[in-house]
Specification:
Layout: H1 3-9, E1 13-16, E2 27-30, H2 34-40, E3 45-49, H3 54-63, E4 67-70, H4 78-86, E5 91-93, H5 98-107, E6 111-112
Parallel strand pairs: 2-3, 2-6, 3-4, 4-5
Antiparallel strand pairs: 1-5
């Protein structure tokens, strides 16, 4: 699935990275705990989170996330969006809660970031 599909599914607004919506999303992680993101994410993972601080951008850069979706209608500050843009990280915002956003994406076919491939069967 591509980010443009995620945008439509979540009725999300693109805050930065409009030109990068053709990126492929292979898995999704829903977390506000960045240590879990570091431990469980894989390449081309979409992170859904309610956090809007620089730590999220740093974590995304270290783990090669494909994009961020900020939930609950939150909008990060300009410094955060500038850092995301500098790192080539698309940031989307949705009114959905973290639970709802992850559920919508899972129902649409995006898998989670489990350690075992067969955890979702």
């Amino acid at each position: 699935m591509q980010l443009k599909d995620v945008k439509e599914l979540l009725r999300a607004k693109v805050l930065t990275g409009e030109g990068l919506l053709d990126r492929e999303v292979e898995t999704c992680c829903g977390s506000d705990l960045m240590s879990d993101v570091l431990a469980f994410t894989k390449r081309r993972t979409l992170l859904c989170t309610g956090l809007t601080n620089l730590q999220v951008i740093r974590t995304a850069d270290m783990t090669d996330l494909c994009a961020l979706v900020i939930v609950r209608g939150k909008i990060p500050g300009g410094e955060i969006l500038e850092a995301a843009a500098e790192n080539g990280l698309p940031v989307l915002a949705t009114q959905h809660t973290l639970f709802e956003a992850c559920g919508i994406l899972y129902q649409a076919g995006i898998k989670g970031c489990s350690k075992k491939e067969d955890d979702h069967e």
